[in-house]
């Protein structure tokens, strides 16, 4: 799909073909038949049902969840279940921590990736292609495999159980650099940049007053993607943080691995920490879908 | 003077623009991975991680003679295969359907991406309930068609299928969108000329869509392979209190979980580093095998 404000969209529906020609498909593929809708609705149900079930289970008692047939509508036990989940772990703190961590990571990543993406897209320097190739290469390196030295580093710094232990290592994204570069190559007119330079503005000045305003839509999409990833990140946070200062995922790990007797309580914790993200996701879904699809088109 | 310099380049500014990315990556991405190899040659205690004793290749010797390692390697492989192969095929099919002219296409796309927005932890906790032996909804559904309750957690094959269901559920919509993006950049006239030549819908899919998607398919295979070798959160949380073993009988302990178990439950960080470095080597080999095989097959096919 197209990102916001992309001037020349390659999307299928923009083709100026005749509106309805009965004998030949207008776009790349024909109109969807009933079977297509049926299958897609089936996939949608499977995609959404586990989330809906979280809501049902979180609002019921354990006995109700375990009855046969299982309940399909929400009940009235949500507050009690949430109270019991709070006995295990401070979910408010977890949600606040996750907001701080994911927010900082999103802001930092977007900043660094916009800077680098702009340089790779529009600046001429000696190692441009080599360094950009290296950046793409780093996408293949799984950062979680460096967790042990990273852990030792954080112990040495005394940062275990501090949020910066999670924020700092996650502050850059090769995908983000790639994403910003692809956007700026097309969206940023060279004439505009040269006009800035002719006026004697420094490259940083040009970046602030010309590049940033143009990059804003892509920065917003990248910010959402990074925020979502940071919110859901699991492996490193459960090593770097404990139940004393958890993010949402650390809290869920504790609920899931602890001796919590009631499944409804676990589901209440899951519901409370997942539903805000899903709600925001539904609101911004169109942009996030666009961002993922835009990032997917690569050489 | 100024103009000439502008034309040649922008002085040191470009380096300053890319520096933050490379500095952070070097410090927290590249250095830890490389240093993992060094740590793996030492004995390091989790409770005293700043003291290490040189042991040479001892960690690797122990690792390769450990049944737990070979068990985890096999589990990682089987879970990887049954969670990525069907997933990518289904994703391709869904993308094909999404590529028709549809009413409510944004609705379908967003709905299918909702599992991707759900965290590993949340998804696994929900599915652990659905896969419950006594009261799980999946067993209840199976009961409706006359199948006896399955003890999903305790069997090797059943538990690994449950895990692959969770992984597939989370990633299939995401990969479908990646394929859809690839499909939409296929020139429309390829389809039109295929249609004029009398190609059926299936033939168009087989001979126009798939060949055009090759780079995208390779990309998703590589990314899924890297992800599959590191599978961690799903088996850890699916196992509840025995999660760090990957089930009571280690029936679904993956390499990632073994790393965590050795490092953070047995306190052997050096040994865990040997697991991590082995995983890294496996990933590099797997990616190389993937890309070479794909290239060779396509060259033969062409």
List the helices and strands and how they pair.
The complex is a heterodimer of chains A (299) and B (302).
Chain A: H1 34-58, H2 62-65, H3 78-88, H4 91-122, H5 128-138, H6 147-157, H7 164-167, H8 174-187, H9 190-198, H10 203-232, H11 235-240, H12 248-257, H13 263-296
Helix pairs in contact in A: 1-13, 3-13, 4-8, 4-10, 4-12, 5-8, 8-10, 9-10, 10-13, 12-13
Chain B: H1 2-8, H2 13-39, E1 42-45, E2 48-54, H3 58-64, H4 67-98, H5 105-117, H6 120-130, H7 137-144, H8 156-184, H9 188-196, H10 201-212, H11 214-229, H12 233-238, H13 255-265, H14 269-301
Antiparallel strand pairs in B: 1-2
What is the tally of beta strands of chain A?
0
Main β-sheet description of chain A: none
At CATH level 2, the architecture of the largest domain in chain B is Orthogonal Bundle
**Percent helix range of chain A:** 55-70%
- CATH topology call of the domain at 90-296 in chain A: MetI-like fold
Radius of gyration of chain B: 24 Å
What helical percentage do the residues of chain B reach? over 70%
CATH fourth-tier homologous superfamily of the domain at 90-296 in chain A: MetI-like
């Amino acid at each position: 799909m197209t990102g916001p404000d992309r001037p020349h969209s390659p999307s299928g529906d923009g083709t100026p073909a005749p509106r309805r020609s009965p004998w030949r498909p207008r776009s790349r593929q024909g109109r969807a038949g009933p079977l297509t809708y049926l299958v897609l609705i089936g996939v949608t149900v499977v995609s959404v049902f586990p989330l809906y079930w979280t809501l049902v289970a979180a609002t019921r008692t354990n006995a109700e969840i375990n009855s046969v047939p299982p309940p399909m509508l929400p009940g009235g036990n949500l507050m009690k279940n949430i109270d019991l989940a709070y006995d295990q772990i401070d979910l408010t703190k977890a949600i606040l921590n996750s907001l701080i961590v994911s927010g900082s990571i999103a802001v930092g990543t977007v900043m660094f990736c916009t800077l680098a993406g702009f340089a790779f897209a529009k600046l001429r320097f000696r190692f441009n292609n080599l360094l950009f190739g290296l950046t793409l290469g780093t996408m293949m390196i799984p950062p979680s495999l460096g967790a042990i030295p990273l852990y030792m580093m954080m112990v040495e710094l005394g940062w275990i159980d501090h949020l910066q232990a999670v924020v700092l290592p996650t502050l850059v994204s090769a995908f983000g650099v790639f994403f910003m570069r692809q956007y700026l190559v097309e969206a940023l007119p060279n004439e505009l940049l040269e006009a800035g330079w002719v006026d004697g503005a420094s490259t940083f000045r040009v970046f602030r007053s010309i590049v940033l305003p143009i990059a804003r839509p892509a920065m917003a999409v990248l910010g959402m993607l990074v925020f979502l990833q940071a919110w859901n990140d699991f492996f490193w946070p459960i090593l770097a943080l404990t139940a004393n200062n958890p993010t949402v995922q650390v809290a869920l790990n504790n609920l899931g691995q602890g001796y919590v007797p009631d499944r409804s309580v676990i589901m209440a914790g899951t519901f409370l920490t997942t539903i805000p993200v899903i709600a925001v996701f539904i609101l911004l879904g169109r942009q996030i879908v666009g961002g993922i699809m835009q990032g997917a088109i690569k050489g | 003077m100024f103009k000439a310099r502008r034309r040649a380049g922008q002085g040191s500014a470009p380096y300053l623009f890319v520096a933050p990315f490379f500095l952070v990556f070097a410090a927290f991405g590249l250095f830890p991975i490389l240093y993992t190899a060094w740590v793996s040659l030492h004995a390091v205690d989790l409770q005293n991680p700043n003291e290490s004793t040189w042991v040479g290749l001892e960690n690797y010797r122990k690792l390769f003679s450990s049944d737990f390692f070979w068990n985890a390697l096999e589990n990682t492989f089987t879970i990887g295969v049954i969670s990525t192969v069907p997933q990518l095929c289904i994703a391709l099919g869904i993308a094909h359907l999404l590529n028709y002219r549809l009413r409510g296409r944004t609705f379908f796309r967003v709905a299918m991406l909702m599992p991707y927005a759900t965290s590993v932890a949340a998804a696994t906790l929900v599915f652990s309930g659905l896969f419950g032996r006594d009261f799980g909804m999946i067993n209840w559904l199976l009961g409706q068609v006359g199948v006896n309750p399955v003890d999903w957690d305790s069997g090797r094959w059943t538990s690994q299928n449950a895990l692959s269901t969770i992984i597939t559920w989370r990633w299939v919509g995401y990969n479908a969108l990646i394929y859809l993006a690839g499909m939409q950049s296929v020139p429309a006239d390829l389809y039109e000329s295929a249609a004029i030549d009398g190609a059926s819908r299936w033939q168009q899919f087989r001979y126009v869509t798939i060949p055009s998607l090759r780079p995208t398919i390779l990309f998703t295979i590589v990314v899924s392979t890297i992800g599959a070798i590191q599978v961690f959160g799903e088996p850890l949380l699916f196992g509840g209190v025995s999660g760090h073993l990957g089930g009571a009988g280690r029936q679904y302990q993956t390499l990632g979980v073994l790393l965590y178990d050795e490092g953070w439950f047995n306190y052997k960080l050096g040994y865990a580093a040997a697991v991590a470095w082995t995983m890294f080597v496996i990933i590099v080999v797997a990616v190389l095998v993937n890309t070479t095989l794909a290239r060779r097959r396509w060259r033969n096919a062409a």
